[in-house]
Design goal:
homodimer; globular; 5-stranded antiparallel beta sheet; 2 domains; Jelly Rolls
């Protein structure tokens, strides 16, 4: 019988931190300390990883699955800040937020994450200017990505915006066919893109018809990125492959 | 006769750099070097300060007037990235952009700016970890602001979004009456907020009716920030006064 997935499991875990751009230039001592402190945690669909305003203890790297970052407005509506999948880091900007998480995080489906103590990162950023500079580059990428997102809300139609969302999930250094795995709940993608569910469904069908991509359940199959770039990137001020793609890492 | 405003004028200028959060913790030697190199430049309405992709030489602080940051999409449409006024800094993130400006900048009306050599900033960030950390805090504020902007495009109506834009221009530590000066061309605010001109005009009238603010040409008069916060901040996940306001500085 499969062991029940639980957030209580927090096992030591092997992780190649230096494969992440943020840690590439870091010293061995810091990386070893981080690796030693790394713990695998699992969350079931719908479980909260942390809440907006919680005291910050860890930042996270996603090993498998999708995580939703969200906030709630004063009148009780949920606003999806972002959705992230395998390889992305979240919670690390809490360093600059008076010790509290600036959003809530929830498992969108069963997820495995690596939890890393934020104090180690915080202290190392203060001591190691190279890491501070790498973090600045990472923040600049995120800023570009957000600038593009705001631009797209004005200039792209809904289908083009879904195309851009899919392109961001591709390995943009590869040019061939690819399968893109979306969260099972596609309405979450709609929320992330600020679309009503019915708008999203219509726009996704239109994207399929315009580009020839195939949609099978929660998997999108493309023969070549150019199917999407020809359609989406024309109405964007960045060129493909675009600099914004590594933003989450 | 008044001297013709020209971008050719580049006079040495007195500026209290340490009044800017980014430079508050900086050493005397660096600040003196920056102050010595500071030049006042004036641009007439419509003049380009720099173009997207130009090699980076300077970053800028606005002394007076409004500056528009924009990009152009492949199909030729202009996307307004942001509009900034007195006290705001722009161009400094070009440090992280392979030596090229990530957007174009244009004077929206006659403006005075302080031009500062970006190499001085770049070298100091590498040498001075405190400055790198302050820059990280500044980037984190901008990131929060962009996150809010994306959230608002989903959750706020057009009038609430204009209300939020006006609140960002206030000194949020003061609670009384205030006059807010908009660019003469209000359609620029519409572009910044991703609205069609007619939507913007209707939404501004509605905001006036809902909140009792007064609009006289390009000046907005309010009796108290609560006129706007009661209406706009209810549909936002931040509270007023909000942490995002210093983002441009």
């Amino acid at each position: 019988m499969q062991e029940k997935i639980s957030s209580q499991i927090a096992l030591p875990v092997e992780i190649d931190l230096q494969s992440y751009p943020l840690f590439r230039q870091c010293e061995g001592v810091f990386v070893s300390a981080l690796q030693e402190a790394a713990r695998e945690r699992r969350f079931e669909k719908g479980q909260v990883v942390f809440l907006h305003g919680d005291g910050v203890e860890c930042f996270y790297i996603i090993r498998h699955g999708w995580v939703k970052l969200y906030r709630e407005t004063l009148d009780g509506t949920q606003a999806v800040v972002d959705i992230f999948t395998t390889g992305h880091m979240f919670g690390e900007t809490a360093i600059f937020e008076d010790g509290m998480y600036p959003y809530s995080a929830e498992a969108v489906e069963d997820v495995q994450v690596i939890a890393l103590p934020i104090d180690l990162l915080k202290n190392e950023i203060k001591a190691n200017n190279k890491l501070a500079l790498d973090m600045l580059c990472s923040m600049a990428r995120y800023r570009r990505r957000q600038d593009r997102e705001i631009e797209h809300r004005s200039l792209q139609n809904a289908s083009q915006r879904i195309g851009c969302f899919l392109l961001r999930l591709l390995n943009q250094s590869e040019d061939g066919a690819a399968h893109i795995h979306l969260p099972y709940d596609k309405m979450l993608v709609a929320s992330r893109l600020g679309m009503q569910p019915e708008t999203f469904s219509r726009a996704l069908s239109r994207l399929r018809d315009k580009t020839g991509i195939r949609i099978k359940g929660s998997t999108v199959e493309i023969d070549s990125p150019s199917q999407l770039t020809d359609y989406s990137c024309m109405a964007c001020s960045s060129e493909y492959p675009c600099k914004d793609i590594l933003s989450g890492k």
